[in-house]
Amino acid sequence: MAFALEAPTITGAFLGGIVSHWLPEQALLFLLTALLVVAAFFLIHPPAQSRRSVSQGHSALEWRFTWKGESYQFNLALMLPVMFTVGILTAMAGIGGGILKVPLMVLLFGVPMNIAVGSSAFMVGLTAASGLLGHATMGHWDWRSSLLLAIPIPIGGQVGSRLSLRLGSGKLTRWFGVFLLLIGIYTGLRALNWVQ
């Protein structure tokens, strides 16, 4: 399932990295603001599990999966354009996309939450790499800054995992949602030239 969902996403991510070259900074800031606010909403109010019934008939467009006793399906006619669009938008905004994929998998395709989260963790790396390739093709990548900023990430990951054990993942997820919302508000104000 992860490979099926990721194929249109990485295509869109590569294209999004290239298309961003021709968009003004203000438009990209507005896009980033919108995605951050949507992501914050889903973190503060996690989606309830969608219990879609799995049809018994056979269709070439319906893909069915069974994993750990859970059955779910999605329609390729819906999945392909949705994931392609997610790839384009997240690459243009410079974010990995997992924050959108999880609620989409749960709400649109009825994928169980734990499977959606695990699958998204695998998919995010591929989406980000494809988006990076598109940006690098257009000369948007400063590898020195990337390496410097990547140094604290493993440390933060370790600290975050330990905090989640103490605070509980639900509470930490909501706090992260509030954090993203504040960043989204700041980004929106920058797009409006109200702050520097």
Structure in words:
Helices cover 71% and strands 6% of the residues. It is mainly α and 196 residues long. The protein has one domain (2-191). A two-stranded antiparallel sheet has the order 1-2.
Question: What characteristics describe this protein?
Answer:
two-stranded antiparallel ribbon; about 200 residues; globular; 2 strands; 8 helices; mainly alpha
Number of strands: 2
Radius of gyration: 18 Å
Tell me about the largest β-sheet: 2 strands, antiparallel
- General form: globular
In DSSP terms, counting alpha (H) and pi (I) runs of 4 or more, how many helices? 8
Query: What is the mean pLDDT?
Result: 83
Number of domains: 1
Strand content: 5-15%
Q: Class by helix and strand content? A: mainly alpha
Helix amount, in percent? over 70%
The side-by-side strand order for the widest beta sheet comes to 1-2
Helix and strand pattern: HHEEHHHHHH
Distance between the termini: 43 Å
Residue ranges: pLDDT <50 for 5 or more in a row?
none
